[in-house]
Design brief:
alpha/beta, 7 strands, globular
Length: 203
């Protein structure tokens, strides 16, 4: 019998054990843009877990989910990408969680649409939201899931314009698969199975 790994049980009474953050820019103007792949991934996780991101807290929209038996805070910063660290570090302080317990999902232009890569720590790689999180927290030990959005067809294109552009129909299909894999990978990561997640989903 198939078992959905995403529990739909009621919010547990225990403490939050992980924070899962999706990076992006708030507002309808930015919906569906390449830079909002992290928001899209978090929405997919919330949907699969039966969670709702309705609470306004920690300078963002958030909600609770149960993933792999763990109580998790799902968080979408509303600070705009470049100030994502304000939201993330506020939530970290409140729940007294170290960077190792904060999983960050964000876009990566160096990966083609449909591909994703998990890393357990490291530099921001030029991603401004991750850069601000590392700067304000003083640590680069954040597990992260990088979702491919593809690079500019021509390097002369303005990078800011490119990341705020929208996916083609073909790219949307490829992205949907990556979002599904990202959701499954996070579910493994909160269970302490990061190596398994990397073996299965790094591409």
């Amino acid at each position: 019998m198939f078992r959905n790994p995403f529990s739909r049980a009621a919010e547990p009474a225990g403490p939050v054990e992980y924070i899962v953050v999706g990076l992006g820019n708030p507002g309808s103007k930015y919906e569906g843009t390449r830079h909002n792949a992290g928001f899209m991934a978090l929405d997919r996780i919330a949907e699969k877990a039966g969670a709702e991101l309705k609470r306004i807290r920690f300078k963002g929209l958030c909600g609770f989910a149960v993933l792999g038996g763990k109580k998790v805070l799902l968080l979408k910063p509303s600070t705009y990408m470049n100030l994502s660290g304000q939201s993330v570090t506020e939530a970290m302080r409140f729940y007294r969680l170290p960077p190792e317990k904060v999983i960050v999902l964000f876009d990566d232009i160096s990966l083609p649409p449909g591909r994703m890569r998990i890393r357990m720590k490291g530099s921001h790689g030029g991603q401004n939201g991750m850069k601000n999180i590392i700067y304000l927290s003083g640590s680069d030990r954040f597990p992260r899931v990088k979702i491919g959005t593809g690079d500019r067809p021509d390097p002369r294109w303005d990078l800011a314009d490119w990341v705020l552009s929208r996916f083609t129909e073909q790219e949307k299909e490829q992205l949907s698969e990556a979002l599904e894999h990202a959701a499954c990978a996070v579910e493994l990561m909160v269970q302490g199975k990061s190596a398994e997640a990397m073996n299965q989903y790094n591409s």
